[in-house]
């Protein structure tokens, strides 16, 4: 920890639980449904944590076999997820398929008595999301969402600092992300019309939800823009302003910044401020200012792969401790409410009350 010469001795940074925390004795067999590109981060994190992934499933057998050879050479490969769900030895299922087909798979897994970790974004329909959460409660299993950014060290530390009341009551949250998202060219993501405010920004809407706690947003006003030099269909720039009863927030996404990438977040409170800044989501410095001093915790880890470790670890700990996971599906609907409202606002050019828009809006002409 580095402390400036202006810091007063009345305050020192307490230890905060920002790192992923593994269960004590719970070591279940895990099944993975969907073996696409993102799953290399899931499986690398699970292998590093010592988790047991015993079944890999994908309708494209070669995709599952590739992941098996890379991470879990003793795993069984299946093409039909229903065969995985029939197995009594599988207690936890990680479902990573695209959201348009994920809902029925989640429902089937819950009905089979499996605990579920769903890839983000959790659902395209808030009502469907609530029904799945209700079904999980009815069947006595846990349903969590892989909001992996929650365990990115800078986001996690800032959240824990806010919850520990180190900066008092939050009055403002402002985030700016400036990077080149045109890497999606040639992938299925190039065809996602609401790419930035939905698929990407859900991490920041979720961060905002965890920071603001019980204070609910009043309105969202958002817009998108197409970069003058981008070559793909989705708008790569977006922004959203969020009003709260006694706070404000703004999120800015410059998704076609081809030079000098930069990522920053600011949280202003009644007793201090928190800042994070750096050239990427994996290279961030966090600084807390209060009592006349600036404090920089020495954080370890990175979003990739720690975020994926943390999402599964929280579900496993919750199962072991018989409690809801902090990344439970029902609470995650609040983050999706913000995202859906932002998308609708950008399309209608008017403020939207979060929760009113129940489904991800269709693209124009769609």
Structure, described:
With 366 residues, the protein is of the alpha/beta class. The chain has a domain at 166-300 and 330-348: Dihydrodipicolinate Reductase, domain 2 (2-Layer Sandwich). 33% of the residues lie in helices and 25% in strands. It is built from ten helices and 15 strands. It has helices at residues 39-49, 61-70, 81-85, 99-111, 126-139, 153-163, 195-200, 202-212, 303-321, 329-348, and strands at 2-3, 29-33, 52-57, 76-78, 90-95, 115-119, 143-146, 170-178, 219-225, 237-244, 247-254, 262-269, 273-280, 283-290, 293-296. The strands form two sheets. Strands 1-15-14-13-12-8-11-10-9 form a nine-stranded mixed beta sheet. Strand 10 and strand 11 form a beta hairpin. The longest helix has 20 residues, at 329-348. It is globular, with a radius of gyration of 21 Å. The model is unreliable at 1-9 (pLDDT under 50).
Give a quick set of tags describing it.
alpha/beta, 15 strands, 6-stranded parallel beta sheet, 366 residues, Dihydrodipicolinate Reductase, domain 2, 33% helix, single chain, 9-stranded mixed beta sheet
In short:
The protein has helices spanning 39-49, 61-70, 81-85, 99-111, 126-139, 153-163, 195-200, 202-212, 303-321, 329-348; strands at 2-3, 29-33, 52-57, 76-78, 90-95, 115-119, 143-146, 170-178, 219-225, 237-244, 247-254, 262-269, 273-280, 283-290, 293-296. With 366 residues, it is an alpha/beta fold. The strands form 2 sheets. Strands 1-15-14-13-12-8-11-10-9 form a 9-stranded mixed sheet. A 6-stranded parallel sheet has the order 4-3-2-5-6-7, with helices on both faces.
């Amino acid at each position: 920890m580095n402390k400036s010469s202006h810091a007063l001795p009345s305050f020192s940074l307490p230890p905060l639980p920002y790192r992923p925390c593994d269960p004590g004795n719970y070591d279940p067999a895990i099944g993975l449904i969907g073996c696409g590109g993102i799953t290399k981060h899931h499986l690398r994190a699970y292998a590093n944590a010592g988790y047991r992934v015993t079944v890999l499933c994908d309708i494209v057998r070669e995709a599952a076999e590739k992941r098996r050879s890379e991470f879990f050479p003793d795993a069984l490969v299946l093409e039909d997820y229903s065969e995985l769900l029939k197995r009594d030895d599988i207690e936890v299922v990680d479902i990573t398929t695209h959201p348009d087909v994920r809902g029925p798979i989640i429902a089937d897994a819950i009905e089979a008595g499996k605990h579920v970790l769903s890839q983000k974004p959790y659902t395209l329909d808030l009502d469907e999301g609530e029904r799945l959460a209700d079904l999980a409660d009815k069947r006595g299993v846990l349903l969590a969402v892989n909001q992996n950014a929650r365990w990115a060290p800078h986001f996690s530390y800032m959240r824990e600092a806010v919850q520990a009341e180190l900066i008092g009551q939050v009055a403002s949250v402002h985030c700016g992300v400036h990077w080149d998202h045109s890497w999606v060219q040639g992938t299925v993501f190039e065809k996602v019309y609401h790419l930035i405010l939905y698929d990407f920004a859900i991490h920041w809407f979720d961060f905002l939800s965890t920071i603001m706690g019980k204070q609910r947003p009043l309105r969202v006003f958002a817009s998108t823009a197409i970069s003058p030099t981008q070559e793909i269909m989705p708008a790569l720039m977006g922004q959203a302003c969020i009003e709260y009863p006694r706070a404000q927030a703004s999120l800015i996404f410059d998704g076609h910044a081809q030079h000098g990438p930069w990522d920053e977040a600011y949280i202003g409170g009644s007793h201090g401020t928190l800042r994070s800044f750096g050239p990427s989501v994996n290279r961030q410095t966090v600084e807390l200012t209060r009592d006349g001093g600036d404090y920089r915790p020495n954080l370890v880890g990175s979003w990739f792969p720690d975020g994926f470790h943390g999402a599964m670890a929280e579900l496993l700990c919750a199962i072991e401790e018989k409690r809801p996971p902090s990344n439970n599906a029902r609470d995650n609907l609040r983050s999706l409410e913000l995202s859906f409202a932002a998308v609708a606002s950008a399309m209608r050019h008017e403020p939207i009350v979060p929760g009113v828009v129940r489904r991800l809006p269709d693209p124009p002409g769609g």
